[in-house]
Amino acid sequence: MRYVISDIHGEYALFMRLLEKIKFSDGDVIYVCGDMVDKGTESVRLLKTLLHMPNAHCILGNHEYGFLAYYWAVMKNSPSDFGGVLADLKRWFPFDGDLLDWDIVDRLERLPLYMEEEQFICVHAGLPLDDDDRIVPPALVRDMVMLEDRTFMRPEVVPKGSKCIFFGHTPTRNVYEGDGIVACRREGRAGGSISDYYKVHLDTGVWLGGVLGCFCIDTCRAHYVKKFNY
Predict the structure, then answer these.
(1) pLDDT digits over 55-97, tens only?
(2) Where in the sequence is the domain holding 44, given as residue range(s)?
């Protein structure tokens, strides 16, 4: 099975519970649409897990990009002090920064801003539309638009074209009711195939309501777990 998720925000234990719930195995694949870090207490532990999973395909979110921008600035000021730079980077993650190493930094730096497959595109915040309401090809879109622009989340934004767009960045509760994943179905479609949807809003706002969800691309069903203390 193929799954997609976004905005895990350092909730390593909750993410592992979700994988257990869906019975995630070596034969499955999960796409992660950015914002793996910050807010939660196990950002680095989550990165260590995801970036070493051969069947996890991750892209950058604005939070990872923010960390990398800080890293690039520190390296520019101290290009030969690798020990000092790493010590500085560890302080970015106040709860488990001691787990950070150069392997994680290097793997993070190699992550793309989007992934495009035959049936879908994964991006963090969304993509702009052209004058015909078609998706602008991601390769032509500025980085910060894909990372931070909130236009795509609006219900009235209905892109034409055959591919479904998976995105997060803004909790669904800010647009719709509740903390569930919102799959937007094409008019007249039954909803049994991913081609029946034009976009899927994935950010369940785990840091707000404690709910973390993923979407199965093959069954078009959402799966959820919730933190025990919420």
Answers:
(1) 999 999 999 999 999 999 999 988 878 899 999 999 999 999 9
(2) 2-226
Q: What element of type H or E holds 115?
A: strand 114-116
- Do residues 204 and 197 make contact, with C-beta atoms less than 8 angstroms apart? no
> What CATH number is associated with residue 93?
3.60.21.10
- Please write down the long-range contacts of 50-57, taking CB distance under 8 Å and 24 or more positions apart: 51/104, 51/107, 51/108, 55/26, 55/27, 55/28, 55/29, 55/30, 56/29, 56/30, 56/31, 56/32, 57/29, 57/30, 57/31, 57/32, 57/115, 57/122
Q: What is the DSSP string of 133-184?
A: SBBPPGGGS-HHHHHH--GGGSTT---BSS-EEEE-SS-GGGTSSSSS-EEE
Q: What tokens does 141 get? A: 């879109």
- How many domains would you assign to the chain? 1
DSSP state letter for 129: B
d(Cα 93, Cα 39) in Å, to the nearest integer? 9
Write the CA distances from 207 to 9, 179, 197, 227, integer angstroms.
7, 11, 27, 10
